[in-house]
Amino acid sequence: MKNFSLFILLAFALLFASCGDLDKPKHLKAIAQMDKSLDSMHIVLKENRLDTLAGIQIAANALLTRIKTYYVSDTIDMELGKKMNQFKRIMKSIKPKKGRGANKNAESNEIIITDRSIGNGFAVVHNGLKAEEETLIALKRDIENGNGRRDKYAEYIKFEQQKVYQLQQLLKAYVDHKNKTIKDFNEIYAELNAFSLKLMEKK
Q: Do residues 178 and 118 touch, judged by C-beta distance below 8 A?
């Protein structure tokens, strides 16, 4: 009787293992698709990197200094004040804040961006892609070698697919925000820069 029970247990173990092996190609295919998505996101992120961040900051500081130095008026120019405030808001959207970035929700593992600047947005997506790549490498290795809880592989795959989707949404938000912010910056900078240069000419 004991031998028969042992036989039944071995049979179930073999059946369980064979089922896991049957699902292996499907799991590996899902990981390959996620890897492909990450590669595509890396390309888009690289194409939308703001390499002129330091140059923009220098130009903005010079513009603000000229206006502060040469603008003198006995009355308050409300229109100029609005444009200056708009310009400063745009600069806050471009320059990353020190010590702030992205945190993770402990319950859902969702990435929460605490600093919406362009500089930080790039870092959040870049670091997220790198972390996800490392996670998928480890998961792929476990599935190939049959390590860990085989019955949880499908659940792990689904969880990582959700993270990849979130990274896609973060990347799209970063690109949209970057494009709009730079467009707004160029428009207001051109106007205020021309104004500041005229002030210099009058002196």
A: yes
Write the DSSP string, 41-73: HHHHHHHT--TTHHHHHHHHHHHHHHHHHH---
Q: Collect the ranges in the chain with pLDDT lower than 70.
A: 1-21, 96-116, 203
Rounded CA separation 43/27 (Å): 25
Task: Compute the Cα dihedral for 90, 48, 115, 58 and give only its sign.
Answer: negative
Beta strands in 47-167 (DSSP E): 102-104, 111-113
State both tokens at 155. 């659940």
Residue (of 125, 124, 137, 132) closest to 159 by Cα position: 132
The pLDDT tens digits for 18-72 are: 455 678 999 999 999 999 999 999 999 999 988 777 888 899 999 999 999 999 8
